[in-house]
């Protein structure tokens, strides 16, 4: 298991907390919690050794494609493909945006 931390400049926080996905064979869990800081702090815990550069490139690309929300994003990965990772992260952001 490896653990990485990334920080990106961020816009306003989303409305509430959210969770998407389930850690399991080939999947990923994303948990978002809003914060008033102008940063999105990302913690990735993964079963895939040596994947720091892949995750960094993934988040650099996501940051270039969309405005990231302020807060904390915890990723628990069990070998998810980049497509599944993007889906789970978009799901957790959408759910948090509409939270009450």
TrEMBL record:
Family designation: Belongs to the MdcC family.
Q: How is it modified after translation?
A: Covalently binds the prosthetic group of malonate decarboxylase.
HAMAP family cross-referenced by the UniProt entry: Malonate_deCO2ase_dsu
Q: What is its main location?
A: cytoplasm
Ranges in a coiled coil? none
Under the heading InterPro entries, the entry gives: Mal_deCO2ase/Cit_lyase_ACP (IPR023439), Malonate_deCO2ase_dsu (IPR009662)
Q: What is this protein called?
A: Malonate decarboxylase acyl carrier protein
Q: What does this protein do?
A: Subunit of malonate decarboxylase, it is an acyl carrier protein to which acetyl and malonyl thioester residues are bound via a 2'-(5''-phosphoribosyl)-3'-dephospho-CoA prosthetic group and turn over during the catalytic mechanism.
Taxonomically, the superkingdom here is Bacteria
The encoding gene is mdcC
Q: Give the UniProt keywords, A-Z.
A: Cytoplasm, Phosphoprotein
Compartments where located: Cytoplasm
**Keyword Cytoplasm on entry:** yes
**Which residues in this protein are found as O-(phosphoribosyl dephospho-coenzyme A)serine?**
25
């Amino acid at each position: 298991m490896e653990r990485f931390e990334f920080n990106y400049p961020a816009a306003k926080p989303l409305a509430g907390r959210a969770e998407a996905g389930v850690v399991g064979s080939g999947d990923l869990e994303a948990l978002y919690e809003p914060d008033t800081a102008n940063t999105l702090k990302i913690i990735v815990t993964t079963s895939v050794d040596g994947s720091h550069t892949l995750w960094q490139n993934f988040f650099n690309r996501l940051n270039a494609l969309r405005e990231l929300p302020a807060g904390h994003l915890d990723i628990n990965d069990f070998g998810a493909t980049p497509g599944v990772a993007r889906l789970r992260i978009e799901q957790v952001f959408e759910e948090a945006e509409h939270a009450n």
